[in-house]
Amino acid sequence: MIGKKNVVFGFLYLVLTAALGPYMVLHMGPLEQARAEKQKALGALQLMASSGYQNDQTLAPMTAEEIAKANTTALLAINKQLNAQAVIDAIKSGPHTHGNLESLLNIAVGLVLGFLAAAPFFKQLVSWLFILGALLHSGMLYLTTFGVGWAGVVLGTGVGPVMILVGLLLAGVIAAFGFRGELVRDRSI
To answer: Is the pLDDT at 119 greater than 60, yes or no?
Structure first.
């Protein structure tokens, strides 16, 4: 069965990309710390504003420098939280989501290929387009998560998503003419 490699690849690749979920949890500690720092800094700023910008010990008006320093501390705390959240968001919206989807796509196309009566060359082409498309798209996203620089260059070519789209188109065309309601034995190439 030509699609068997897609099913096997899909399940193994799903393990790899789904494992990014627990990896994201490792980044929750710094995010929670940044959130706490932000709340503390914004709380101090809110207290200053609610007191009419008076020094809480002398009740004298605060200087512009004191107010500016409190604003700077709050802004830096907000930025720290945004930066900590960005790491998690980059993993979640990139290799984790796309990798899981492309794993499931490979499993689905592998199963569907078993029901298609078509020349083995076309079925092999569809099969390899999905595997290589996943590796050149979400695989490169995965590698960029861990700082592999050349993966970003490959990702920037856009070849992975194009391969998946071409694979979808070819699978649709083949299915329109060759879909059977039962498993089809592939001829040898």
So the answer is: yes
